[in-house]
Design brief:
The complex is a heterotrimer of chains A (202), B (259) and C (351). Chain A is an alpha+beta fold. Chain A has a seven-stranded mixed beta sheet with strand order 2-1-5-4-3-8-9. Chain A has a two-stranded antiparallel ribbon with strand order 6-7. Chain A is globular. Chain A is built from five helices and nine strands, in the order αβββαβαβαββββα. In chain A, strand 8 and strand 9 form a beta hairpin. Chain B has 259 residues and is of the alpha+beta class. The longest helix of chain B has 19 residues. By secondary structure, chain C is mainly β. Chain C is built from four helices and 22 strands. The longest helix of chain C has 22 residues. The N and C termini of chain C lie far apart (73 Å). Chains in contact: A-B, A-C, B-C. Chains A and B meet through helix 2, helix 4, strand 6 and strand 7 of A and helix 3 of B.
Chain lengths: 202, 259, 351
């Protein structure tokens, strides 16, 4: 419901400002990239209007995660080494947080061509990721834009795999980036501390 | 045949778009960059040359005058309204105000627009029904041989430009050289944004070339530099690696492509 | 936002606590200098914040007056600038602070250095900094890749006393160094440096230009010459005659002079020598070992030395790289002008 309202508002907003231009924007709000939307905090990453698909084939925008702190990692499922480790690191954070709800755990795939919902679902199952986790597929533009906002570097190589930086990001309940930890097997203490602070604030 | 078809399709598409955008004064000229192999500067076992298919590219970087039209019809990209997440405080700082480049700045109307973020460049290209070029596309295009060239080699020319401080007043577009594809100013005027500028996963600290942090690379294998004496390429890739999407820099602009 | 520094500082504290204990155990063996890892007995409890005094060559900041560790704020700016390299030639220098060498930074062992690197908006290049005094990824380079108009920020603990080179570490590193992006940071030992009458800052560097030595006009960098390590210029403080004649260093008979001398390279090792003098004290490779009565001392590229001389007679001391073609033909001369009364018991010219 929230999303519907959100999208509705953004259409209205864009409708006003964009009438004069002949941009392909109106009526295509959900597919736009890198366009600020005026309904969330001006520092929020949830301003991105791009649509993603979850492992359950649900179409969402990132504002879907509004209301709870969110831990974000960017991965791809064919990744043999780093991504399973990064996933395990986030899982470790989840376990140490020891709270059933209250935090979203989010993995966004670099791999727009292979990591469709079905594949993401398989990955989630094989790593035993519970209902607090969302895995997202997005088009090339959406994923690139998110990576730019999260300062994650990635590059596709000739084999279709990716080299990428490994960063765990924490967003507050409004989608504002508040903390990042780089590296695999990094000490989770600060990430957990940040999350606990965010939960205490609510 | 495939190649011919894609050109044909691109042409048809291009014409259609042009028809739609009749209202815009003097539509920017685009030229075709023929497909070819792009050899990545940082190579590994899996990061080998890739084939880039033909595409069309703006003949010159986007100018201040052109960007002004965009800002006029997209209020959220005005200097006073732009969101800091998408453009830092240097955004369009060389303009007089939101909607005026400034009379005293008339000299730069036809110069490349700079002090624009990646997000702004993306939005502009999208508004034009175009995209930012990928690193591979940009590098392939920029590698085109110059027509009528005074310099010994393109690399010499680039390095000379890189190692000089930015001029106080940025020259007009078409003030450097034209290359084999008909593109102007691919080097020697400004740096340009690319779609995947943040694609450099290796450390910008080049001293470790040959042996980078293995865990960054799912694809595995050591990373090597294609040509250790190509200082110009080093500088360009190092520059891209230091950028963030909201940075606005006085020597950084862009041009768009159409696939 | 990426919080690596705090954690490492924390572990440094833990580490030093551990070391304190080990010192207690092994105190019988401890000498007035440092133990093998040099980091014991460092008090790391901060007692306030100060801004570092920064100077340009040949000047050195005043000795540290405080006696317990502080948080020291340091900010350098990368500036690309055309300057004369000789009387007839200009060169586009890349600098820290607009001079070659860059700002001299002076801190005390145990200080927590809060470091900001700015890159001037007019810069065309990305720059960064690797300080050899830093123990951490890239010596700070990992944290400081800085685009034009931007700034970056990191912290490090000055664990070991000594004189250290810093330089830009953005690829291609040799080019950034060849264009002049280096300087020195002095970490004073906890007890401070012994008092002397004068302290000066010199830094050697080699330069590679398209035109030959002193060719008129703005000269471009020559990659071929740089790769073959064949410089047109070997200079102290970034310019032919930077520190000679009217710009010579000064001292009086009877005074002691200490020189903080770095070698930015990028290629050449310096055979540092004072004509008409000798070094009564050399802090070898700017470390903790002191050698005495040295005629010529090596300064590696990317290294430094601290030398002291006692002024005995009035003279002009020529400081040179004693790989002597460099002094004679490529500019590697600086001078100290010593004034005062003759001292015939030491030197006398006879008829």
């Amino acid at each position: 419901m929230k999303i519907v309202i959100f999208v509705f508002f953004s259409i209205i907003l864009f409708g006003c400002s964009d009438m004069s231009s002949k941009s392909a924007f109106v009526g295509e709000v959900a597919r736009s990239t890198s366009m600020p939307v005026g309904t969330v905090s001006s520092e929020s990453i949830y301003q991105l209007a791009d649509t993603f698909q979850t492992q359950d084939n649900k179409k969402i925008t990132l504002s879907y995660f509004m209301g709870k702190p969110t831990v974000v990692g960017m991965i791809f499922t064919h990744c043999p080494y780093a991504c399973p480790r990064l996933t395990a690191d986030i899982k470790d954070i989840e376990e140490k947080m020891n709270s059933k709800k209250g935090v979203n755990y989010l993995l966004v795939s670099f791999d727009s061509e292979r990591d469709f919902p079905e594949q993401l679902k398989k990955f989630a199952n094989s790593y035993g990721l519970n209902q607090n986790w969302t895995l997202l597929h997005g088009d090339e533009n959406a994923v690139r834009t998110l990576s730019v906002l999260l300062n994650v570097q990635f590059q596709k190589d000739a084999t279709g795999n990716f080299s990428h930086s490994n960063i765990i990001s924490v967003l507050d309940k409004d989608g504002v980036l508040v903390f990042q930890k780089e590296g695999i097997d990094a000490d989770p203490a600060e990430t957990i501390g940040t999350l606990k602070q965010l939960l205490a604030k609510r | 045949m495939k190649y011919f078809l894609s050109i044909l399709m691109a042409t048809v598409f291009f014409c259609t778009v042009q028809a739609q955008q009749k209202t815009v004064v003097s539509e920017k000229k685009m030229v075709t960059v023929r497909g070819g192999n792009y050899k990545p500067f940082f190579i590994s076992k899996s990061n080998r040359p890739v084939y880039v298919t033909s595409f069309r590219m703006d003949e010159t970087p986007v100018t201040n005058a052109e960007y002004l039209i965009f800002v006029k019809s997209n209020p959220r990209w005005r200097r006073s309204k732009v969101n800091r997440l998408f453009a830092d405080t240097n955004y369009l700082r060389h303009w007089k105000n939101d909607l005026e480049i400034g009379v005293s700045n008339k000299i730069i109307y036809n110069s490349p627009v700079v002090n624009v973020s990646w997000f702004a460049a993306q939005a502009y290209c999208k508004w034009k029904n175009k995209q930012l070029p990928t690193v591979a596309q940009w590098e392939l295009a920029a590698n085109g041989s110059p027509k009528d060239f005074k310099y010994k080699s393109l690399t010499d020319f680039i390095l000379d430009w890189y190692t000089k401080p930015s001029p106080r007043v940025l020259p007009h577009v078409k003030s450097t050289y034209q290359n084999q594809y008909g593109l102007y100013d691919m080097h020697g005027l400004i740096w340009e944004w690319t779609f995947n500028f943040n694609s450099f996963a290796a450390s910008p600290d080049s001293r470790r070339n040959g042996e980078d942090d293995f865990k960054n690379f799912c694809a595995g294998g050591a990373i090597n530099v294609a040509d250790k004496t190509d200082y110009a390429a080093y500088l360009r890739y190092g520059y891209r690696a230091s950028l963030k999407g909201n940075y606005c820099i006085s020597s950084l602009g862009f041009r768009c492509v159409k696939n | 936002m990426i919080q690596i520094s705090k954690k490492s500082i924390f572990s440094i504290q833990m580490f030093s606590v551990l070391l304190m204990f080990s010192v207690l155990f092994f105190s019988c063996k401890s000498n007035p200098g440092n133990s093998d890892d040099g980091s014991n007995k460092i008090d790391t409890t901060l007692t306030g914040t100060v801004s570092a005094e920064l100077t340009f060559a040949p000047n050195v900041p005043k000795p540290i007056a405080y006696t317990s560790p502080k948080k020291v704020m340091v900010q350098l700016e990368a500036i690309e600038k055309v300057m004369p390299i000789s009387d007839s030639s200009e060169y586009t220098f890349w600098t820290f602070g607009g001079h070659v060498p860059g700002n001299f930074i002076r801190v005390r062992q145990g200080d927590l250095v809060d470091f900001t690197l700015k890159n001037a908006p007019e810069s065309k290049m990305t720059h960064s900094i690797d300080l050899h005094a830093v123990i951490g990824p890239g010596g700070g380079a990992d944290a400081t890749s800085t685009a034009p108009g931007q700034s970056t920020h990191f912290q490090f603990r000055a664990l070991h006393p000594g004189l250290y080179v810093y330089h830009c570490a953005t690829g291609p590193v040799p080019l950034h160094i060849a264009n002049g992006m280096y300087g020195l940071i002095l970490v004073e030992p906890q007890g401070g440096m012994p008092k002397v009458d004068h302290e000066y800052y010199l830094m050697q560097g080699d330069f590679y230009t398209k035109g030959k030595y002193d060719a008129p006009g703005l000269q471009d960098f020559d990659e071929t010459k740089a790769l073959s390590e064949n410089p047109d210029y070997v200079l102290f403080n970034g310019r032919v005659r930077s520190t000679t004649g009217a710009n010579a260093l000064t001292a009086k008979v009877g005074e002691t002079v200490r020189l903080y001398v770095g070698n930015g390279g990028p290629n050449l090792v310096s055979s540092f020598h004072a004509i008409g003098q000798l070094f009564t004290k050399v802090y070898m490779e700017a470390g903790s070992e002191i050698n005495r009565d040295v005629q010529t001392t090596l300064i590696p590229s990317g290294g430094a030395t601290i030398v002291e001389m006692k002024m005995q007679v009035p003279e002009v001391i020529n400081l040179v790289d004693h790989s002597i073609f460099r002094a004679f033909n490529k500019g590697a001369i600086a001078q100290i002008k010593v004034t005062g009364a003759e001292n015939p018991s030491v030197y006398q010219k006879l008829k």
